[in-house]
Structure formats: C-alpha cells, structure tokens
Amino acid sequence: MSEPIIKFDKVVKRFGSVTVLNELDFSVSPGEKVTIIGPSGSGKSTVLRILMTLESINDGVVWVDGEPLWHEERGGKLQAASEKHMHRMREKLGMVFQQFNLFPHMTVRRNLTEAPIRVLKLSKKEARERADRLLEMVGLQDQADKYPHQLSGGQQQRVGIARACAMRPRIMLFDEPTSALDPELVGEVLNVIRNLAEEHDLTMLLVTHEMQFARQISDRVCFFDRGRICEEGPPSELFSEPKEARTKEFLRAVVDPDSAKGEKQASAEG
Amino acid sequence: MEWTSYLPPLLQGAWVTVQLTVYSTILGAVLAFAFGIGKLSNNWLIKGVSIGYIEIFRGTSLLVQLFWLYFALPIAGQAIGIDLRLPPVVAGVLALGLNIGAYGAEVVRGAIQAVPKDQYEAGRALNFTPRQAMWRIALPQAVPEMMPTFGNLAVQNLKDTALVSLISLGDLAFRAENIRNFTQDSTTVYTLVLFMYFGMALVLTAFMKIAERSVGRWKTAGR
To answer: Where in the cell is the protein located (chain A) (predicted)?
Structure first.
C-alpha cells in the first residue's frame, strides 16, 4: 500500500469541555473514496474542518501528503505552523459545504473564476475557460451569468462543487453536501459527486447521511462515534454485516427509523 | 427690503455649505473605512489607534472639536514652535470629517462583522489571503448594508456644517445671521434658510439612494 495522503495521528479536538475528537487515528490513501457516517456530534464534520484549516487541533498531528498540516518542522521539532505554511498546504484541498457558501455578490461564473485568478494567478481567459468547462460538467453552462440567489438549492450546490474543482485540489472534502437540500434536489447533486468519484487520482472524503449513495461510491466507510472510529470497512461489509453493536444500532435507526424506535421501546419495556 | 434680495448672499452661503458637506463627507468616509477596518485588525497597535480615534471623536462635542482645531491648536503649535494655524475651511472640514468618520467607522465595523462566518470559511477553503477575503468577499457584501446608515450620517453632517459659522466661515448659517443682524427680519430669513437646508438634504438623500442601489445591484438581479 502507498503512503497515506491523509493521516490523523492521535488527534484531539475539544470545544470547551467537550472532547469532539478523542485521540483519533485515521488515514486515507491517495485516490481513495472514503465516506464518514455517524450520529451528530460524533466529530465527522470536524475531521473535514480540521483538514480545511477551519478548525485547529488541541493535540496530535495531522499529516497531509507527507507533511504536517498544523505544524512545521523547525530544528527537528514540530512547531505551530505559520500562515504561509498553511496557505501552501491548503492548495491540496478543496471543500464543498453543507450550506453551499457561495459568494452572493458574484455571478455564478465569477464564483468560479475569482479564486483561480486571485489565488492561482491564472489569466482571466484561462480562468474563464476552466469555469465554463466545469459549469458544463455540472450541467449549468446556461446559468453562468446568474447570481446564486436566482438558482435552486441543487443548482447552488453544483456550483459549489464546480467552484471547489476550479482550484484543482488533490483532496476533495464534502461536508454533508445534500443535507440542506429538498429531497427532490438531492439526486442531481449526488450525480455530480458520483461522476467526480470516477476520477481515479482524486481523493475524496465525504460526510453524509445518504447511506445508499455511500454504499455505491465508497471504497471504505468509517463509522464515527464519540470522536473515534468505531468501525470501518468496505461498504459491502459494514452495511451488510456490521460487527459493533453501536454500528448496528445506528444503521438500523438510519435505514428504518420506525423499527428502531419500536425496538427501543420494546427493550425499555422488557 | 424685498425678501428676494436676501437670496444672492444666502445662495453664496449655501454653496459654501455644499462644499463643506461634500469634502467632509468624503473625508469622513475614508476615515470610516480606515478605522472601521482597523478596529477589526489583529495588530494591537492598529486596533488601539482605531478604538482611540473612534471613542475620542464620538465622546466629545463637535463644537469643542471645531474650536479646538481652530483656536487651541495654533496656540499649542506656537508653544512647540510649529505654525498650526488652519484656514477656517480646513478646520471646518477636518472637524466635521473627523467627527462623522468616527460614527461611520462603527457602521463599517458592524457591517463587516455581520457578514456570515460561512463566507470567510469559503474564502479560506479557496485559499484567499485574509486581505483578499476582506476586499473581495467581506466588503462587497458589507457595503450595501452600510449605505442606509451612511445616508443618515451624510444628512446629519450637512446639518452639522451650520456650526462652522461660529469660526467665521461664510456658510449658509453665517450669511443668515449677518442678514438678520442687518435687517432684523428674523422670520423671513430663517424660514428661507430652513427651506434651503431641507432642499439640500433632499438632494443629498436622493444621491445616497442612488448610490445604495448601485452597490447593491446583485441583490435585486432577476427580481
């Protein structure tokens, strides 16, 4: 197996007195598509937010592409990273947000060209061509001159995905990309993600509640519980024959909420 | 005396008032952005200077600031051997601009802080530098939010210009006082002046509305 492109080494993250990640060990190989599932508050989104440098860590080391993300090696020791180091590290990563987070004051096309022009220093022509190709990829080529508020949620999220792709990251982070969408709009977004998942070189880390989708596109599924990986494995195994009791309970509740409730009541009565 | 004969001197004064308003509002806007953004800086020196400026100018009377710049500063300058005598126009524009800028800075700060955290996170994920995030993402969204309050401040500023008549600057209020002293026709003079200030305020409000609409065009696109 090749060197992991992402590696969490005993990472601790606390919010006040709440420990969100509890000495988490976790790694992802280059090109791997990994889905993180788990109850809310289990630290799944925090993993992505730490990778995108939106959230700092309290202890441990996060490695991305062989280099520490939140640290720099100085004099043989790991020290807190400078903004410059993190700026360089962020080039490897892209993120798609639950609430899309598009820039409301820019047209769809400018949402896609602004960072390539300002950050990657692409020419306007190059950035525009790249944006138009990506908009075609997500099926929104005729919406380029609209503003985000003129689009549906599903369309906005597809713009969000295209915007992240415009930076050509090696690792894509999807933070519950369909959770804010009306049910009938989920499919169009999942289709775009599914197409991306076919790209062999792209490493994908996806937090989602869409179990069917996770089963289809993932190489591996990780079940998070209380800041740690409770169980992980290929989707066929984890979904069909979960070993841990917590995983079973969670999957039952997600797949068929009514039966889980019934059982809980039954066990409470018994 | 015919009331129309008051008009030429009053209009001359009104022109001075307009100039004072325009210059001091522009100065105030520049200061508002500089110190409003400065107050949000991570650099404690920039932050401290910004807070100091805002609190001092909001916490003291405009009239006293004006007198201080015009009467006290030259004497203070004399004591240390520098000529700090200011022409009345400069003292007037400075006092008005510094005062309105302090109020404006709080508006700028508030509007920038009201930009959702999500937007900064998106900026970070796309690897914008903090400076780029401020200028490309936060400010363009914050400016339309500032405009209604800026409109109020500009009208406030227009009315405050009347104070400069007290340092013998020939603005509208100053001319009105002169004519009244000469003719004792208080009612006519001050009614005219009232309407003239009101007219100027209307024009200024209209300008600010146009500006407000033009910076917020993206909000109403396609609606």
So the answer is: Cell membrane
Annotation: CATH topology of B3-222? MetI-like fold (1.10.3720)
User: pLDDT tens-digit profile of A129-181?
Assistant: 999 999 999 999 999 999 999 999 999 999 999 999 999 999 999 999 999 99
Q: Hey, which residues does A74 pair with through a beta bridge?
A: A77
Question: How many separate domains does chain A show?
Answer: 1
CATH number at residue A29: 3.40.50.300
Closest approach of chain B CAs to the CA of A49, in angstroms? Answer: 9
- Residues of B near A (Cβ–Cβ under 8 Å) read 118-119, 121-122, 124-129, 132, 136-137, 140-141, 218-219, 221-222
CA distance B189 to A202: 78
A147: nearest CB among B124, B132, B218: B218
Inter-chain CB pairs, A–B, below 8 Å: 63
Contact A97 B118 (CB under 8 A): yes
Structure tokens at A257: 């909420």
The first and second tokens of residue A64, run together, are: 């991305």
Position B70 scores a pLDDT of 92
